[in-house]
Amino acid sequence: MYRSGGGMLPPRSSRLPRTGVNLGAGDDGEGPGRTVATLPDVQVRDSLVREHVVVVGAGLAGGRSVEELRAQGHQGRITLVGAEAHLPYDRPPLSKAVLLGRLDDTALDIPFERLDVEVLTGVPATGLRPGTLQTEAGELPYDGLVLATGARARELPGARVLRTVDDALALRARLRPGARVVVVGAGWIGAEVATAAAAAGCATTVLEADAAPLAGALGEDVGALTVPWYAAAGVELHLHAQVEAVEPDRVVLADGRTLPADVVVVGIGARPDTDWLQGSGLALDGGVLVDEHLAASWPDVVAVGDCAAWWSLRFGVRLRVQHWDDALHGPVAAVATLLGRPAVHDPVPYFWSDQLGHLLQHAGHADGADAVVQRGVPGAADGWSTCYLRDGRLVAVLAVDRPRDLVQGRRRIAAADAADPARLADPAVPLRSA
Ligand code: FAD
What we know:
By secondary structure, this protein is an alpha/beta fold. It contains 10 helices and 27 strands. The strands form 8 sheets. It has a 5-stranded parallel beta sheet with strand order 5-4-3-9-20, with helices on one face. It starts with 20 loop residues before the first strand and ends in a 10-residue tail after the last helix. Flavin-adenine dinucleotide binds near residues 56, 58, 59, 61 and 149.
């Protein structure tokens, strides 16, 4: 168990610095680099004074919440409770640079000592009553609570999952030249694992139950555009492949076929890590149910990141996006709300993936789109994009090797102004003016 801090902070100035970073392709189209974003100045003087805020879940959303609490002027005690043995770290590199052997440590740079935060690692929360968090190490009273327990990978008996840094390092050790690697699921994580396995010289096969990779996220037609990437990367792809069982040295398919395997990895999505809240009485619905301010059904409780199912004013639906960008920025509104200045969380969701030699970036929410416009030819050297429209307005964009489209498309989605499908379809017309 790591512990740090614990005392009270000296009084702070009531004027806060602007904070926050935004991950997304820059206007220069140079890919998912980090750029500083400006957030509105926040006044501390009207804030609700809380004695002890407990943050459960020491991932990106939990770590950022701790930073935001201090940045927004909370002067009372903060305790960060995490189930893993590690301090908060970044997950996106786990299926990319870490698996590829280019990075070992993805720890987040959060100065816990300076922020005067007590950090309890290796301590799972087990239950909740109003005002009290129950953990394996005992009860923790709170008068403000941030739920940030993220998600856990869906499992398949006999197969490995990739969610934690321990998972990634253990998997990497098995990716040896010639090893027979079977990846179950051609979704975001599955495609990234296959990329790393093929790069390591493994004989790599991907099994997908749907008719196309990424069909669940992008639809079959768009997902099908990624099929040629597998062969080009030396990966065998089997579609309509239903796994019956994973045995120690092979995978058995429902149609009776068997595939020899030294390593089997499953990437079939993640579910909110909220089982421990069942029976507490807190409202759950595909995650912790929160409103547009990230406020949960009990006073003094907010939820943020992968575990939160928040109400999107922009799209008029409840979203649980499971995106790094959301866990990064959500704490700004969650903490403001907890400190008595309810702020609206209503981003245009953003996600990226590096797979099979391509950069995929997705912004917005495509459900309910009534028109889909293809922009550029799949396979073109300068990439292609798919635009999703609803009532003549852009609601989502998928940019493949076209980071500029992502940046400009995301702004158009935020602006919700009318777009011209004919101009959208012309890759020579910048998305900003299409
Ligand atoms: P998490 O990162 O899941 O952290 C939650 C923490 O809470 C965990 O440490 C967990 O152990 C802990 N916890 C759970 N239950 C309890 C409990 N009962 N008590 C105490 N602690 C608990 N997103 C992108 O946008 N782009 C990408 O390319 C991308 N790649 C990814 C690759 C991988 C391999 C993975 C796993 C995720 C990827 N993501 C990506 C998603 C992104 O990492 C998540 O959206 C982000 O990590 C969510 O942060 P979080 O803090 O909400 O949850």
